[in-house]
Write a structure and sequence with these properties.
With about 750 residues, the chain is mainly α. Helices cover about 70% and strands about 5% of the residues. Among the domains are: about 90 residues, Serine Threonine Protein Phosphatase 5, Tetratricopeptide repeat (Alpha Horseshoe), CATH 1.25.40; about 100 residues, no CATH class. A six-stranded mixed sheet has the order 1-5-6-4-3-2.
């Protein structure tokens, strides 16, 4: 007796008081009726529990004979449990289970089961919970029975076993529980039915809540769920009526934002877009710091994007949603939408800029007019700023910066019209991909795929574009057109891996791009290159290209030849010639695509230098000054590989092997090798005038034989022309220039220049 008295007043009383207060705080924060995961407790509560453990440990150490050992053990176990130290908690519960006459054995089994659940020993835990439930019913331990149901149902919900959870809830409702708890259990059952999409049973459960004694929160939530379920069941008008009834009750004013959000959703579902947008706007602005406000902002962005096509404003609201009180999954979706819209807007800005550049390239008056308008705007803005009586020194300092931000000064294009078309084609293609894959808008995607193909004749993305158009027709269930597109890709693009994707669609055999019989030959050529025998490697690579034109190693060999010439032999003009051949013959290969931008930049620079030389020559011509003659040398003329390869490359494009035809062409060439005329005039870039006749210069060669071969190709294509033999003093060399003509007027010559040179 004395031991019990001393233990109680010296230790147990204080430990129990601290524990009870700590547990009350923990349970106040855990409002879920059915929960599995234990949330971490704050540091102050954990400190209190440490004190409890210290005192109960003292009882277990110094007062083993007292009647408070069982209480000390279960308090210690619970304290460790709340601190999420489950292994130590389990040891204390196991220790208590050995005290056979303890009145806490059933409660101890419950906490043992709860601990096993947290330690993820689910099967053992569930068996023990069922045993506790049976004993609790037999012994009329109602609170233990309630806690057992809550633990098991919480786990089943966490594990998404909703049908089992509903079955367990129905058993729970048969237990002796008060009306407030019964109302809460019915509400949770309604939520389970809703998740399982059993909407009618969910509605029945929510309605039944009102027959008992729900708390204020459960009362509103159950009625709110009934109103929303009416919409899910297609009864939008009744849903609106019930929502409006809730909205009219002042006692639910704290939930008006949620109610108005649901009303907006009903309008949205009914396709009453303007009403929905107005309602979402009201919620977003009135309850902007709440979850309903964040969700409404997302819906505003969605409507702006999908119905009003106001992408700039939609982007603003998606960004706003990402930092709002909206649920995390919606914020992540808003962030993704922001990224996609940024890309979409960026593409259109680039395309608009290119459209302006093309206008300036083709219409100089537009550039002049825009420049004059820009200057006028600056003047007006300056006058306005000067007349402002509130101006200050700081505004003066920043005025120029503000004007530059407000108005964009017209800039003359720094790229050619061809480059504009190439960029347009690329951006149309990328925009189409974005619309097809991310915006799920195949019709708009098809429109931009079409524009991409129209912009550039030698489109590097042609295979992918045609394949995507085939997919478009497949989506539209137009099998004939889809198969036609896939067949075109399969037949035309033998060196593009997308050929196999097309083959899958039309049942054609697949090509193994990873294995080619020419591979071993290419490896030998690479080994020669690695041994620094560049000329021999070039010869071997050229043989691969020439003898295996349909192998993927043909394009790779040309690319490697160009690489050696560019990087090892430092012959950029010769490399450009090989790259140009690669682009012309294997434009859809990955190697051609990899050098497209580089080659384009090289050609653009050559055109720039040519334009400067033209300007100099025009000046000299007008002043009748004799000087160093203009030299126009084709990049292919500098291809310094051995003569046999040169001849092979130039002969590779011949299509007419007839001896008599070649003889006739050669006779025409021999008659048309003449010396430079003294009275020729430079009219424009590559256009010359002799008397009343106009000629177009297409290339210039150091080798007469190569010049004759090139002219022969043009004669076969029904062009007339001649070779001008010209000595260039500055270079101390003779060049053979191919000129087509004569033509009666400048415009005819210009049209031929455009057709031959593609500019």
């Amino acid at each position: 007796m004395w031991t019990n008295f001393k233990t109680y007043f010296n230790t147990y009383y204080n430990a129990n008081k601290i524990f009870t207060e700590a547990e009350e705080k923990i349970l106040e924060e855990r409002k879920e009726l059915f929960a599995y995961e234990e949330k971490p407790i704050n540091s102050n509560i954990s400190k209190d529990l440490n004190e409890v453990i210290e005192k109960t440990s003292a009882i277990l150490q110094h007062n083993k004979e007292s009647d408070y050992v069982s209480e000390a053990l279960i308090m210690t176990g619970k304290s460790f449990y709340y601190q999420q130290n489950y292994s130590r908690a389990l040891r204390k519960f196991n220790e208590l289970s050995t005290i056979e006459d303890s009145e806490l054995l059933l409660e101890n089994e419950l906490w043992t089961a709860k601990t096993l659940l947290q330690m993820r020993e689910f099967n053992k835990a569930l068996r023990l919970l069922d045993e506790v439930k049976t004993k609790a019913i037999e012994n009329e331990e109602n609170q233990i029975l309630i806690d057992t149901y809550r633990s098991k149902i919480g786990y089943l919900i966490y594990n998404k076993e909703f049908s089992s959870a509903i079955s367990e809830i129905n058993q729970f409702l048969n237990a002796e529980i008060d009306d407030e708890l019964r109302a809460a259990v019915l509400y949770e059952m309604g939520l389970m039915y809703k998740i399982s999409e059993e909407y009618e049973l969910a509605e029945k459960a929510f309605i039944e809540v009102d027959e008992y004694a729900p708390t204020f929160e459960i009362d509103f939530n159950s009625k709110f769920e009934v109103a929303k379920l009416k919409g899910e069941l297609g009864e939008e008008d009744q849903s609106l009526e019930l929502l409006q009834e809730l909205r009219d009750e002042d006692k639910f004013s704290d939930s008006w934002g949620d109610i108005d959000l649901e009303i907006g959703k009903i309008f949205y579902d009914k396709n009453e877009i303007d009403k929905a947008f107005d309602k979402f706007t009201y919620v977003d602005t009135t309850y902007k710091s709440t979850e309903s406000g964040g969700i409404s902002g997302f819906y505003r962005a969605e409507i702006l994007e999908n119905f009003y096509n106001d992408y700039d404003s939609a982007l603003v609201f998606y960004k706003k949603t990402a930092s709002s009180g909206a649920p995390q999954e919606l914020k992540l979706l808003a962030q993704k939408k922001s990224v996609l819209l940024n890309k979409y807007i960026s593409f259109h800005e680039k395309l608009d800029d290119l459209e302006k550049q093309l206008l300036y390239l083709t219409d100089n008056n537009s550039f002049i007019q825009d420049s004059l308008d820009y200057v006028e705007l600056l003047k007006l803005d300056s006058i306005k700023a000067a007349s402002n009586p509130n101006k200050n020194q700081n505004s003066k300092l920043n005025r120029n910066q503000q004007l530059n931000t407000k108005y964009k000064m017209p800039q003359r294009p720094k790229i050619s019209a061809d480059s504009v078309h190439a960029l347009n084609s690329r951006y149309y293609f990328e925009l189409a991909n974005l619309l097809f894959s991310e915006f799920d808008n195949p019709d708009s995607a098809f429109y931009y795929y079409t524009l991409s193909l129209q912009e550039k004749e030698n489109n590097p993305n042609q295979a992918q574009t045609l394949f995507a158009m085939g997919n478009y027709y497949a989506i539209k269930q137009n099998k004939q057109k889809a198969d036609s597109m896939f067949t075109l890709v399969y037949n035309k693009f033998q060196f593009d891996p997308i050929r196999n994707e097309a083959a899958k669609q039309i049942g054609k055999p697949l090509y193994d791009f990873n294995k080619d019989p020419v591979e071993e030959e290419y490896i030998v050529a690479e080994a020669i290159y690695d041994s620094l025998k560049y000329q021999k490697a070039i010869n071997r690579l050229f043989d691969i290209y020439k003898e295996n034109p349909k192998s993927i190693y043909a394009s790779k060999s040309l690319y490697t030849i160009g690489f050696i010439l560019e990087n090892d032999l430092k012959m950029p003009d010769s490399a450009a010639s090989v790259y140009d051949r690669l682009m012309n013959e294997y434009k859809t290969s990955e190697y051609a695509k990899s050098i497209q931008n580089k080659l384009g930049g090289y050609k653009q620079e050559q055109q720039r230098l040519q334009a400067i030389q033209d300007s100099i020559n025009n000046t000299n011509s007008s002043q009748n000054i004799t000087g160093v003659e203009e030299t126009i040398i084709s990049s292919e003329a500098n291809l310094e590989i051995d003569d046999s390869i040169k001849t092979s490359i130039n002969n590779s494009t011949e299509t007419d092997d007839s001896t008599s035809t070649n003889k006739t062409i050669q006779e025409k060439i021999n008659k048309n090798v003449v010396s430079k005329s003294d009275n020729e005039q430079i009219i424009s870039r590559d256009i010359f005038k002799i008397g009343n006749e106009y000629f177009v210069q297409v290339s210039s060669w150091k080798s007469k034989e190569i010049a004759e071969e090139e002219l022969g190709k043009l004669i076969k294509k029904k062009y007339s022309g001649k070779i001008i033999e010209s000595f260039v003093e500055e270079l101390n060399a003779v060049y053979y220039r191919i000129r087509l003509g004569p033509y009666d007027n400048f415009n005819s010559a210009k049209d031929v220049r455009k057709k031959i040179n593609k500019y």
